[in-house]
Amino acid sequence: MKRPRQSQTGGPTAERYPCKGDSLLNDELQCQEAIALMKHTADEAVVKEKMRLTLAYRQKLLHDPKESTDILSIFPRFQDIPGLVCENSKDKDMPVFHVIQNIVVKDEHVLLITTALKTVCLVEHIHAYKVAHTVEAPCVLDVKDILHHKLFDILMSYACDSDLFIVPYSYM
Predict the structure, then answer these.
(1) Distance between CA atoms of residues 55 and 165, nearest Å
(2) What is the C-alpha to C-alpha distance for residues 47 and 120, in angstroms, rounded to an integer?
(3) pLDDT digits (tens, 9 = 90+) for 116-130
């Protein structure tokens, strides 16, 4: 006997709460104060703590198409994090990822200086794309032209090999 299908909710636009408890700032005023402190301090421990506390606020901004393009001006410390990755296009149904080398603001346009990664394959059992560095020349991307306004990290395999992976929130 088949069970009746339950309606599923969620998807890429669903609101997610990655952490629960009192460890996140829920009040927008508190988030604004934390952001102001991050912009004017050089203490790495303070920046990391405030980034952790404002996680839910950043995710809310990223899910808002109008606000997500301003994320780098609101949180300029993203520029201090090496190895952030964005997706620019698709090639043969595989995403094309780019490692962000530098961020430039010119004439009110946020530009990313990037180098492309080669997407080797989708490794379904770990829900990640296997990628490799390329020797292509750097390219310039306008933030408005990237497909997903979410930044990814390059992750290394726990094994002894040097495989690199990008784990998206969902298959793209």
Answers:
(1) 23
(2) 35
(3) 999 999 988 888 899
Q: What is the DSSP string of 65-122?
A: HHHHTTHHHH-GGGGGSTTEEEEEEEETTEEEEEEEEEEEEETTEEEEEEEEEEEEEE
Burial class from Cβ neighbours inside 10 Å (0-12, 13-18, 19+) for residue 117 reads buried
Handedness of CA 135, 147, 171, 52 (dihedral sign): positive
Which of 16-20, 31-35, 47-51, 89-93 comes out lowest in average pLDDT? 16-20
The DSSP letter of residue 22 is T
Residue with tokens 């929130």: 169
Residues near 149 by Cβ (< 8 Å), separated by ≥ 6?
62, 65, 68, 69, 71, 143
* Radius of gyration of the chain, Cα coordinates, nearest whole angstrom: 18
